[in-house]
Write a sequence for this structure.
């Protein structure tokens, strides 16, 4: 698939109005360029459901439809550009020295779409609401991150924490979106802020919305605080129930912004028009997860895990199972090219994990007492309905046969699968780590920190499903929060060493942010050269950045 | 009247049984809605928080099953279906979601089913009446074949032919998204256009059964003496066919029709899925996939009521059309 | 309550007059065009399911990447290849086995339950009948397919056994109701009373006197249940509620659907299994309808013969070919 | 063959009527060359064993055959028109006004979903433009004629007893006072007492209204007191035809004789009866020669080969070679 | 078979059978058979005649133990059937009192060859026979009812036989057990006259050759006269008249019997005057009030007929009638 270049330092994005359009390649840090408004953009992102027409940013299941379009965060943090920050509702912020309190200065002149001004009180209100109604505290700031106080004074808001809260900055600055106090402090909204539907949302974002179950129509917010923006006047967001029609509309050009997997993307989409492009940056790992608990005889042996890691041809899995659209992963656990800076490629190749090696695999398996003549039978659980996983596992199964491992896939309903995965009732599991963050730290912590695991039979829902326990890794991870930026890179690299040495999991492919775009009428798309935001429409608040950059070519 | 009372009794008992089944079936399913919610939030929200959220929406998996059951019965009877706990529709009132889909399913499936029944009965009547004609000699075979075709096979081929090989007709959705819903001719035209393929699928697969049963009933009825009597009286052919033969042959079909509503729902699920038609079938599919108990329960209830209601209506019709049932105990 | 849902017209009330008992059923079956066609179709699919290797060289059709993906049909790959690099024809051939197993096993088990439930309800009568037929009617009324979906989701792991069990659990009620109606109509038939008066035991009467006379309805039921199973199983698999690693037509369709085969130049991936399922369904439906015709001779096709009438007018008043009188023994 | 010219007194003339069932195994001639003349106001009884083609003949005459049966030869002249050749439309014209039909089982012959009155109305409306009142008056009138309370016009068939239904059928047949009523075993479903009473009623009405009746039954004794003439059928053919008395007193055909001998009497002397041995032939393959020869106690060799015609024997006609004019007369032992 | 002709074989004492009809809210009692006392002697054919629905079949089924009596008892050879204990005794009774069913088309199992019923019966009731003997015995009884060649007939399916032949198979089946009494429920009603007489002859012959008694149920009084020693007339669940055939037919004492006889057409008898139209109201047997059940149709009905149910009384030797008017007339003559 595509070769990614990564030039993190040189690129700009965000509010400084990128000049990058899909066709123009160079990025520059020259003066912001502005565009005329106009055009109707259609998003094609399979939802599987008609729109509920609810725009409660605290409703975790559908706030994608509100966040970014209507509600905005304080600061935008770009995962793809080494956590590059763009001030949004907060024009600036200041940590105290031990990083237990942060003060945001709220931007002047921001208006809610009903004309009321946005103030520091609104911001403080939003955070305090989360304390008051714990169900709205989606990122467990009060219960988990140690937030103790959110206070406004003048145009400033100070969040005070029990301890160093630097690692939570991504959540409270970037993921939390701010709601208007004058709306949320009265009526149904105040009574049930967590379940209130909020059918006619009042926000500060670039768009306002009109919703029918079949379609959401976002109209440019005339009183948006960034003058002249957004450039695209109308955004249509139809409810696609299934991939097929969503893909079809992309292929036909009816929709210009795609955010889902397209099989055979080349013939189906790219070849249909030279204006059709795709760039799906990887963000997380999909891994074969062995059960490390000693009760699982085979998979708790290093030899078996190494054999698996050596034998699997990740490139082939990527090519066949994922149609070449999810790149092969690294044994280091670092998603490349997104986090290239952290990746210790030398260590990987030194250990021989850079390419499949059947001989090494056989040798490793031998150490565990298995061989082609005494094959090892293993069952891998996966999720019913994930056909790409089924296909990937079929490839893996085929490869493992050659070294003496008979793999059986057990495709379970999501519920059964999760149940088994969390409770440790499996030998091997094919797992996509769900959560991440702007640096590899977030994902690696989930996979590896012993705080995230639980004994067999108890739920290890926090991400360490394989039950990896290593004090040194824990210490390293714990030290990350307070370390300096450079030290952080070093810490991550040390952790990679354990990934390679202990093979706690075997990353196979990298899950991506699905993105297809059409450059005929619209420019300003994020590209590999200018990755100013994660490009999928379902990613907030990144979607706002994209929306703020897009422009309608015929209007220019 | 006693007959009707007994039917009503049956109706209520079955309703209760279905309600109970509705309650227990999903509750014995493994897993919880939290998983689908996690997927919907793309892992950005911790599990503990997800649980908290679910609880705030009234989902209490740990409460006593029987007290839940009573609550449930009360809620169902008062039409309080609760809010969805499904992936991307968490917190949306179930009644609202059903309200959005119901008209589409009713319109598509309801109308087609009735249409198939009426058309099928008509064709069956004529085929049997013209016994031995060319039509009658090929009809049974043709309709045996169509009645055995799976919905998705027909749907697939229609899609292949009408939307992929040629882009003559839309193969998904209930109307063109760019049109604002309303009573405008454009919107209605779009709705009809979008309904065409799924309706054809349902029609093709379900009409055969009615043709065959009606034909068979007609043949049996035509052998009755009162048909000969009708002819002997010098009544016009049409009158004998309609008033004497079809009217009688139709009666046993009515109860069959009621029973078939259940199968029609099968069609609805598959067809709505194939054609991306946002109706109840699709909702059920989603609800099952995301372990959305409230939604599942409400849909189940709705389906059962639909079948029972159809049975009741057909009973009433039968009583109205057939004086003999009125006398029956 | 008991007779509420019994199908008044459909249950053939009489064990049928005319040539159709024992060997008769088989003979009539053989002389029925629809039955023949259905049976041949079924037989071909059966052979394919039993000996797939006769039809294709590929021995592990589901293994990915054996061939180039998305090849068009050719001499090497009659129906082309899938986007995972599998041979569609091989998948199709091997995919016949599971639907057939489902049809026969699920259809068979459901029929056995139908017979058991239906006949015992009819024979026991009274409260037992009321209870049994109430349960039957509830199962009958509750929309099957949604139930099937929920049940198979409930089971967690979509193995063949699970699929078959689910289909059996939901598939028996219709037949039970029909058989009950038939058994009820038989219950007071003179030949059963005759056996009772003869001094036979209840169990003997049910098994050896009653069941044999219901044989054509039981067969028809089996065919119906098999058809139901095939269609529903395929539907389930198509929705992704089957085992995606199994090779079965329904699963093929599911894969084809999820890989956009129709749009991606691998049409046969979808068309072949669709045709296969349709063929299997049609085979059962044809045989089933043929059984209707056999048990109700009135339904058999008739042809109007206008030409013959003229011939008859010219014929001498006694048919020429008349032989000696049919010697009916004994009188 | 009876070469008939149209008899001015005849109401109905059937000439060489053939009716065949077209079955997969070949054609079954259930009525094989029936000739029959019926005068106005005459009561003709038709008797014969089950399956000998009585009903088929009736329906052949009334043009009510259902496939696979059809008239394959012959003519049915009724009031100067050949019913066989008549178009469906003109046939419908004659129906019910000029001839009506009463069928075997009234339960099945009345449409179960309509009231008696409704069915009367159907019949009337098909042939006349009467006002609602006229229809009601006439319907009530005919019902009273057969001894049923006119309130039953509002009844459905299942609400009447068997006897009442039969009488309602007869009432319906009388709506237009036709010239001919064709009856196919109208009493067979009733018990003896009801049968007797209904027969008496039919006879009474016939006398009163003067219509002709063709009355089909398999029970010879039933018609013995009521019919003017009797026609005995065997295997699709008329084997004996004559006045009832003549046939009963001196049956000319061995089959008629056998039938009569099969009836025990409740009054006369008690003697051992024999019945007719064997079973009726399969009409698809009727015996050669005389169709009765396999069962005939007095069969001769030539009966196997030669086909008898209807010969005049005194007051009756009989299809038996014993009565062939040219042949030597042999007395039948009784 | 060596018991003297005429000695009592079976007797019923106040045999009563009611059916519950209607369900749920309305329960009614249908009095199908009410307090019937009848006797059947050895080597005797007894006719049971009466109009449709009068309870004839119900009596036969009660005797065959298909139904249980609501009250009253049946004594066979002096022993009450209620006293039969165990399957063995039950079987023995069933072997001695078999039943021949009305409808020849329905009483043979269409799934089996016709020997099935006979062989099963032999196996159950004549356990001493070896299989070969059973076959021989089956052939014997089939020939006894006049079916030849037996071996071939036995191998046919019911549909391959004519109605008359089937009916005889029914008889043969009953005969095979060496019964003492055959309950024949309208065994000839479906048959053509020409076949009917043959079967009646078979019955008469069996009485002569094997000494079997019959309860012959029929509508057809003429055929009853033809073979029967005694006649019982039923009306509305009651036996209204019983006596030697000729007595009853020559001198019917009950008005229903008279009506019945006058309705029987007889080609040989001279034409009688037409019967007046009888309002054929069926008797009330559902929750019937006391009184004579024929009273509404009876030309002679008196007030007492509406209040007191007449009992069967012997009015002439062996000739019993249940009619107030007839009883009074007889009493008047006597007194
Ligand atoms: N549909 C049919 N196909 C073939 N043969 C038939 C059909 N219907 C009747 N027959 C034959 O036609 C012959 C005459 O039948 P028909 O009904 O006229 O007899 P019937 O004299 O009226 O007898 P019954 O007294 O029993 O009413 C019978 O031998 C019968 O076998
Ligand atoms: N199983 C039953 N359940 C309810 N009622 C019954 C049952 N069997 C008979 N009856 C009723 O009992 C009465 C007598 O019936 P039965 O069959 O004995 O009459 P029958 O004299 O044999 O009449 P037929 O001459 O018509 O055979 C009838 O009114 C009948 O409806
Ligand atoms: Mg007839
Ligand atoms: Mg009876």
């Amino acid at each position: 698939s595509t070769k990614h270049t990564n030039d993190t330092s040189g690129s700009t994005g965000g509010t400084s109005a990128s000049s990058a359009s899909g066709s123009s390649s160079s990025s520059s840090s020259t003066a912001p360029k502005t565009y005329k408004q106009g055009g109707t953009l259609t998003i094609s992102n399979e939802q599987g459901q008609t729109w509920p027409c609810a725009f409660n940013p605290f409703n975790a299941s559908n706030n994608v439809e509100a966040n970014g379009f209507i509600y905005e965060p304080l600061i935008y943090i770009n995962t793809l550009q080494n956590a590059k920050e763009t001030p949004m509702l907060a024009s600036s912020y200041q940590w105290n020295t031990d990083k237990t309190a942060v003060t945001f200065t709220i931007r002047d002149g921001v208006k809610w779409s009903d004309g009321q001004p946005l103030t520091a009180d609104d911001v403080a209100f939003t955070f305090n609401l989360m304390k008051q109604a714990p169900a709205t505290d989606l990122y467990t700031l009060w219960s988990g991150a140690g937030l103790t106080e959110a206070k406004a004074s003048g145009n400033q808001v100070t969040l005070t924490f029990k301890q160093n809260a630097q690692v939570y900055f991504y959540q409270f600055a970037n993921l939390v979106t701010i709601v208007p106090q004058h709306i949320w402090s009265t009526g149904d909204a105040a009574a049930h802020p967590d379940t209130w539907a909020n059918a006619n949302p009042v926000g500060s974002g670039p768009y306002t919305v009109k919703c029918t179950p079949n379609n959401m129509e976002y109209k440019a917010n005339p009183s948006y605080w960034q003058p002249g923006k957004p450039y695209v006047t109308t955004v249509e967001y139809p409810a696609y129930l299934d991939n097929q029609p969503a893909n079809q509309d992309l292929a036909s050009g009816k929709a210009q912004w795609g955010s889902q997997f397209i099989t055979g993307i080349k013939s189906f989409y790219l070849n249909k028009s030279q204006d059709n492009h795709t760039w799906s940056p990887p963000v997380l790992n999909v891994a074969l997860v062995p059960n490390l608990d000693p009760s699982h005889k085979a998979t708790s042996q290093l030899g078996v895990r190494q054999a698996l890691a050596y034998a699997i041809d990740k490139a082939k899995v990527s090519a066949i199972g994922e149609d070449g659209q999810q790149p092969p992963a690294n044994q280091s656990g670092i998603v490349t090219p997104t986090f290239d800076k952290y990746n210790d490629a030398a260590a990987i190749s030194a250990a021989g994990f850079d390419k499949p090696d059947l001989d090494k695999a056989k040798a490793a398996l031998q150490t565990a007492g298995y061989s082609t003549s005494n094959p090892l039978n293993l069952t891998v659980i996966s999720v019913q309905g994930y056909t790409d996983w089924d296909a990937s596992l079929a490839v893996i199964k085929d490869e493992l046969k050659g070294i003496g491992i008979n793999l059986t896939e057990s495709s379970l309903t999501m519920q059964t699968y999760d149940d088994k995965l969390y409770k440790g009732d499996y030998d091997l599991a094919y797992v996509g780590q769900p959560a991440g963050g702007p640096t590899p730290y977030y994902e690696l912590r989930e996979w590896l920190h012993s705080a995230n695991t639980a004994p067999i039979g108890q739920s290890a829902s926090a991400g360490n499903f394989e039950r990896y326990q290593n004090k040194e890794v824990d210490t390293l991870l714990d030290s990350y929060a307070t370390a300096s930026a450079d030290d952080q890179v070093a810490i991550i690299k040390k952790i990679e060493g354990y990934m390679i040495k202990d093979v706690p999991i075997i990353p196979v492919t990298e899950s991506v942010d699905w993105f297809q775009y059409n450059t005929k009428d619209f420019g300003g798309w994020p590209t590999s050269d200018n990755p100013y935001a994660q490009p999928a429409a379902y990613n907030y608040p990144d979607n706002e950045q994209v929306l703020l950059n897009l422009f309608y070519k015929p209007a220019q | 009247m006693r007959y009707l009372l007994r039917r009503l009794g049956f109706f209520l008992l079955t309703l209760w049984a279905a309600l109970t089944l509705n309650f227990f079936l999903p509750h014995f399913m493994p897993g919880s809605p939290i998983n689908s919610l996690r997927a919907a939030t793309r892992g950005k929200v911790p599990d503990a928080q997800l649980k908290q959220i679910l609880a705030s929406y009234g989902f209490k998996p740990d409460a006593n099953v029987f007290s839940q059951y009573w609550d449930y019965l009360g809620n169902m009877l008062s039409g309080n279906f609760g809010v969805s706990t499904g992936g991307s529709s968490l917190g949306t009132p179930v009644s609202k979601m059903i309200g959005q889909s119901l008209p589409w399913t009713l319109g598509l499936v309801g109308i087609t089913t009735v249409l198939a029944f009426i058309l099928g009965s008509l064709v069956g009547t004529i085929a049997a009446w013209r016994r031995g004609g060319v039509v009658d000699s090929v009809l049974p075979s043709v309709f045996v074949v169509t009645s055995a075709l799976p919905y998705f096979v027909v749907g697939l081929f229609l899609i292949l032919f009408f939307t992929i090989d040629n882009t003559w007709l839309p193969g998904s959705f209930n109307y063109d998204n760019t049109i604002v819903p309303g009573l405008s001719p454009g919107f209605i035209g779009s709705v009809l256009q979008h309904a065409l393929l799924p309706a054809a699928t349902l029609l093709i697969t379900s009409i055969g059964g009615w043709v065959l049963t009606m034909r068979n009933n007609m043949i049996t009825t035509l052998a009755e003496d009162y048909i000969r009597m009708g002819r002997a009286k010098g009544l016009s052919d049409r009158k004998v066919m309609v008033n004497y033969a079809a009217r009688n042959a139709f009666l046993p079909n009515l109860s069959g029709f009621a029973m078939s509503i259940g199968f029609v729902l099968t069609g609805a699920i598959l067809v709505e899925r194939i054609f991306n038609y946002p109706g109840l079938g699709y909702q059920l599919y989603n609800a099952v996939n995301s372990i959305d108990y409230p939604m599942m329960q409400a849909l189940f209830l709705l389906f059962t009521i639909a079948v029972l209601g159809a049975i009741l209506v057909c009973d009433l019709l039968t009583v109205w059309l057939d004086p003999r049932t009125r006398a029956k105990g | 309550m008991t007779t509420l849902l019994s199908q008044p017209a459909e249950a053939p009330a009489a064990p049928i007059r005319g040539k159709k008992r024992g060997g008769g059923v088989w003979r009539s079956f053989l002389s029925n065009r629809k039955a023949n066609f259905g049976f041949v179709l079924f037989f071909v699919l059966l052979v394919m399911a039993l000996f797939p290797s006769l039809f294709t060289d590929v021995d592990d059709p589901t293994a990915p990447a054996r061939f180039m993906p998305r090849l068009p049909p050719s001499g090497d790959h009659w129906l082309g290849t899938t986007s995972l690099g599998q041979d569609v024809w091989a998948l199709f051939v091997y995919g016949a086995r599971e639907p057939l197993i489902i049809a026969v096993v699920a259809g068979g088990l459901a029929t056995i339950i139908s017979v058991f439930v239906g006949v015992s309800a009819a024979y026991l009568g009274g409260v037992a009948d009321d209870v049994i037929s109430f349960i039957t009617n509830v199962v009958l009324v509750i929309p099957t397919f949604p139930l099937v979906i929920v049940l198979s989701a409930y089971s967690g792991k979509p193995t063949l056994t699970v699929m078959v069990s689910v289909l059996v659990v939901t598939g028996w009620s219709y037949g039970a109701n029909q058989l009950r109606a038939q058994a009820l109509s038989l219950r007071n038939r003179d030949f059963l009373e005759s056996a009772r008066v003869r001094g036979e035991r209840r169990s003997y009467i049910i098994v050896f006197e009653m069941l044999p006379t219901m044989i054509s309805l039981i067969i028809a039921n089996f065919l119906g249940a098999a058809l139901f199973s095939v269609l529903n199983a395929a539907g389930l698999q198509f929705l992704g509620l089957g085992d995606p690693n199994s090779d079965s037509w329904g699963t093929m369709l599911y894969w084809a659907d999820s890989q956009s085969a129709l749009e991606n130049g691998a049409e046969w991936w979808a068309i072949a299994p669709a045709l296969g399922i349709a063929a299997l369904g049609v085979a059962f439906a044809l045989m089933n309808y043929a059984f209707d015709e056999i048990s109700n001779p009135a339904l058999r096709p008739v042809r109007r013969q206008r030409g013959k009438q003229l011939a008859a007018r010219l014929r001498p008043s006694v048919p020429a070919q008349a032989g000696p009188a049919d010697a009916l023994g004994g009188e | 063959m009876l070469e008939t010219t149209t008899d001015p007194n005849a109401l109905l003339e059937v000439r060489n009527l053939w009716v065949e069932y077209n079955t997969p195994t070949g054609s079954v001639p259930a009525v094989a060359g029936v000739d029959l003349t019926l005068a106005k106001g005459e009561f003709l009884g038709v008797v014969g064993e089950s399956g000998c083609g009585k009903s088929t003949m009736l329906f052949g005459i009334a043009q009510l055959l259902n496939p696979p049966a059809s008239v394959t030869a012959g003519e049915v002249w009724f009031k100067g028109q050949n019913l066989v050749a008549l178009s469906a439309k003109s046939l419908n014209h004659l129906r019910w006004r000029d001839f009506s039909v009463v069928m075997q089982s009234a339960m099945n012959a009345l449409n179960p979903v309509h009231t008696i009155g409704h069915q009367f109305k159907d019949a009337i409306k098909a042939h006349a433009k009467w006002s609602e009142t006229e229809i009601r008056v006439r319907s009530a009138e005919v019902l009273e004629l057969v001894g049923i309370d006119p309130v039953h016009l509002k009844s459905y068939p299942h609400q009447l007893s068997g006897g009442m239904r039969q009488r309602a059928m007869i009432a319906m047949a009388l709506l237009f006072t036709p010239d001919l009523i064709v009856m196919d075993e109208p009493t067979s479903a009733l018990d003896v007492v009801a049968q007797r009473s209904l027969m008496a009623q039919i006879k009474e009405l016939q006398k009163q209204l003067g219509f002709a009746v063709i009355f089909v039954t398999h029970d010879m004794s039933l018609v013995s007191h009521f019919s003017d003439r009797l026609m005995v059928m065997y295997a699709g053919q008329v084997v004996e035809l004559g006045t009832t008395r003549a046939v009963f007193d001196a049956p000319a055909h061995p089959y008629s004789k056998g039938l009569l001998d099969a009836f025990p009497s409740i009054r006369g002397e008690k003697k051992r009866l024999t019945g007719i041995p064997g079973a009726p032939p399969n009409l698809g393959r009727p015996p050669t020669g005389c169709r009765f020869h396999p069962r005939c106690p007095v069969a001769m060799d030539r009966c196997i080969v030669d086909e008898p015609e209807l010969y005049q024997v005194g007051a009756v006609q009989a299809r038996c070679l014993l009565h062939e004019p040219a042949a030597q007369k042999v007395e039948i032992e009784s | 078979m060596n018991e003297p002709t005429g000695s009592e074989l079976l007797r019923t004492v106040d045999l009563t059978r009611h059916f519950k009809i209607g369900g749920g809210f309305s329960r009614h009692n249908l009095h199908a058979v009410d307090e019937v006392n009848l006797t059947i002697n050895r080597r005797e054919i007894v006719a049971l005649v009466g109009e449709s629905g009068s309870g004839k079949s119900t009596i036969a089924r009660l005797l065959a133990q298909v139904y249980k009596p609501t009250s009253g008892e049946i004594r066979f050879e002096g022993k009450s059937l209620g006293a039969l204990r165990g399957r063995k005794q039950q079987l023995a009774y069933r072997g001695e009192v078999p039943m021949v069913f009305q409808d020849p088309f329905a009483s043979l199992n269409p799934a089996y060859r016709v020997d099935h019923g006979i062989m099963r019966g032999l196996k159950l009731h004549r356990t001493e026979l070896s299989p070969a003997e059973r076959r021989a015995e089956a052939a014997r009884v089939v020939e006894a009812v006049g079916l030849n060649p037996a071996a071939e007939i036995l191998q046919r399916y019911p549909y391959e036989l004519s109605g008359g032949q089937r009916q005889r198979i029914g008889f043969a089946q009953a005969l095979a057990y060496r019964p003492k009494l055959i309950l024949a429920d309208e065994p000839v009603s479906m048959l053509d006259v020409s076949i009917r007489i043959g079967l009646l002859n078979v019955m008469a012959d069996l009485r002569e050759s094997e000494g079997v008694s019959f309860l012959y149920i029929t509508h057809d009084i003429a055929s009853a006269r033809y073979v029967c020693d005694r006649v019982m007339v039923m009306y509305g669940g009651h036996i209204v008249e019983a006596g030697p055939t000729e007595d009853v037919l020559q001198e019917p004492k009950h008005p229903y019997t008279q009506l019945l006889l006058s309705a029987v057409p007889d080609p040989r008898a001279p034409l009688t005057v037409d019967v007046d139209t009888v309002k054929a109201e069926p008797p009330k047997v559902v929750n019937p009030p006391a009184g004579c059940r024929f009273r509404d149709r009876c030309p002679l009905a008196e007030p007492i007929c509406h209040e007191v149910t007449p009992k069967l009384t012997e009015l002439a030797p062996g000739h019993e009638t249940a009619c107030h008017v007839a009883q009074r007339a007889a009493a008047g003559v006597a007194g």
User: Anything to note?
Assistant: Chain B touches chain A through 55 residues (CB under 8 Å).
